[in-house]
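Forum: Protein Structure Q&A
Topic: Joint prediction for protein chains with partners

I've read a bunch of threads here and the consensus seems to be that you should model interacting components together rather than docking separate models afterwards. I'd like to see that in practice. Below is the full input, 578 residues plus whatever partners are listed. Could one of the regulars post the assembled result?
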Amino acid sequence: MTWLRDVLDDLADEAPHVDLAERTIAIHERRRQTAVSLIAAALVIVTALGATAAVRLLPAQPRPAANPGAVTDLPARGVGPLSHAYKTFCLPESGRAPAGCRDGEWRVVTRTGRTYRVPQALPSLDAYRSVGLRDSPLAISGDGRKIAYYGAREQTFVVRDLASGERLTAPAKIPEAWLGSVSHLLLSADGRFLAFTKNPALKDPAMIVDMRERMVRPLPNGWNPIGISDDGGTITLAQYSPKPRLRTMSRLWATSTAGNTTTADLPGSYFFSPLAPDGTTVMAIENLSTQTRPCRHGDLVRLDARTGKTLKTVPLRGLPADVSQISLRTWRGATEVTALTTSVRCRPASKDDGPAEPEERRDPPYLTMTAYAVDVGTGRARKIATYTAQGFFEIVLPGPAGAL
Amino acid sequence: MDRNDSFREFVTAHQQSLMRTAYLLTGDAHLAEDLLQSVLLKVLGRWRRLSRIDNPEAYARKALLNQHISWRRRRAGAELPSTSPPERSYSSENTTVVRLVMRQALMRLPPRQRAVIVLRYYEDRTERETAELLGCSIGTVKSQAHHALARLRDLAPELAPKFAELETMQEGRR
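Posted by a regular:
Agreed with the consensus. Here's the joint model:
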């Protein structure tokens, strides 16, 4: 054994101790199901376009335009309220990327249909093409007038008022490495509080930032922030793995060291909505998917965010039969929540090794997603909008997102 | 036992050893974890085939090296040492400082040279094994090791006597 061997051995002792088995299996399963679904969706789209062209003797339509008109960089001020934001990866395995596409970049779309690039936000790295894992998140306030993102130049989170151009930066720099491979950002309705969490949890903290008073409090990582009280003192978090749970943390800014935390284990698997406007409940759709029968959803349920108890169950009605994936998003008032859906055709996961490993794939194709307003009292859904994005992780609507 | 169980067994047995190598290659706990996570995903994607071969760990180790070199190529300039080496002179017997200086110096090596140092002097691989793992010739391994040691000596001049001893020992072995 040489001197150099001893030094390297000492250095290697600093390596983190982790258990990556369960996380790897979970990520693999998720990517495989997504890939299977997206490939199926791409086939459906190609077939449909081909049929249309044959019948009408028209050339295949280009991808639906999510960005009418020229796409320019986000101006310093004077931008109206946003409808949504989407992330672009530029080598879709089928179809075309938006014109002027830049890998990992966010674009925001105003309610009037103007699309802007957000080069101020750090681009995400593309997990599909071996350039590393880094998810740079973006959030839109409930009124669509503010955005939060990780500033490439600032090296920390920035909240920006789109009309006035006012920018608030978090009080401390945050290393890019903390962004993780799946990041979540929640911006309070008034843009004052910003919660950031990520997966994998690693050892560095998640956090909630008071952008106005420039204070920071740690949060647990590995959770999705799904709601924050108006005073920023209480946050609601949801988790899928290792088991479905809801957590409420209160007195976040109290001077004493510990706030109050309650955690509720849930009996089944759910797709969670953001915290309801009543501040105490969460809507969720039962996830009935299994290895052999993927993309199956059950009823709409209202859960008590603190206890996890099911308060009400109603069947979901009015969605087309081919809807396969649902993500609950923005609340549209006290009784309606947005359900973002795709109609990709799901088939059981193959017993073989599945598609080629993600590192060797191109990016997911751009999909049309349909949003429905769901009446949480009756379970009835009505169509409200369509969007184009590469997946649920690549589209942001105003207000807190449900758990992804 | 399903394939996930055998994969779990594999990960439990080898992840810490792979993580140590990943840490030496990246010099950063987060990057090391990302690197290993990405490699384990690749291994799991091929587990049905890999679990039937004698040594899936060798595949994982090779994938780790390739992924590291490929990431470094794309993320050139992204790595920054997080702690500065001491400005005053230090003793080459102070293990904490030596470790710090060595980490700094290692991080400044090009990825392939760093991989050669890790394989030859940490994992005690032969030149032939190192060449196979890196997919290059034995001559390349020799020259990369030579250049890497020379560069380390430049980057950490206070450790030069130690490197000189090392090279003397190597000469003696030949």
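Chain A has one domain: 2-396.
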